[in-house]
Amino acid sequence: MRTSIFDAHFHIVDPRFPLVGNDGFLPEPYTCAMYREAAAPLGIAGGAVVSGSLQAFDQGHLVDALQRLGAGYVGMTQLPPTATDAEIVRLHEAGVRAVRFNLKRGGSADVSHLQSVARRVHDVAGWHVELYVDSRELPALETTLARLPTVSIDHLGLSKDGLASLLRLVARGVKVKATGFGRVDFDVGDAIRAIHAVDPAALMFGTDLPSTRAPVPFRPSDIDLVVRVLRPESHRVLWKNARDFYTMTVR
């Protein structure tokens, strides 16, 4: 019997809230009801809603989604460096648990604010920082990331050429989302094995629904791949690692 899943990475696109075009692209709606319909047969019992480049610094969509999804769900926001401590606390009370820097597509604060924002949200609310970044860019960020309290990197780092740098960061405590399998340029199974070998607590599975702009969208067989590669350790990647990571973020 397959374990329950904590979906560490998915998006809600609700047309009631403003979107910012990214390179002329605007996504189709993907509401909480649509996500629940897709998630139910997969055994998903909680997860992390991620603000994307198209939502910029709007917080309304994320707070609304967390209210609709209810217990077991947390949020990842994009935060301007001008955000006050009171705003961070308010978002924490609404269920937000991390700040995201989207270095791949923009829409978030600039990387020059990474260290100051990451440290402030951690000091104020215990949040961690998440990066959507091509791992080929990690060598220039390794020293900074290794000094931050808690960090995760999206989509297995995207690129084979940056895998060695990603593994060095994993050895220093950085977490990695086993998400976006249709976005990467390498064998997913091999990358999962390599990351798991360095730190069994590092990998956190996510569906990446609705897989906006992914060359190959999420498929239920992505879950089967994790189970096949890591059995009997797949429970850690599908549930325990992410559940522990997100629920440890408390004030």
Number of domain modules: 1
**Relevant CATH superfamily:** Metal-dependent hydrolases
What number is the mean pLDDT?
Answer: 92
Compute the CA-based radius of gyration.
17 Å
Oligomer: single chain
Known CATH architecture: Alpha-Beta Barrel
> What's the main sheet like?
8 strands, parallel
| Helix-strand topology string | EHEHEHEHEHEHEHEHH
- Reported by name, the CATH topology is TIM Barrel
Question: What percentage of amino acids are in beta strands?
Answer: 15-25%
Architecture overview:
It is a single chain. This protein has about 250 residues and is α/β, with parallel strands linked by helices. The chain has a single domain, classed as Metal-dependent hydrolases (TIM Barrel, Alpha-Beta Barrel). It contains 9 helices and 8 strands. It has an 8-stranded parallel beta sheet with strand order 1-2-3-4-5-6-7-8. Helix 6 links the parallel strand 6 and strand 7. The mean pLDDT is about 90.
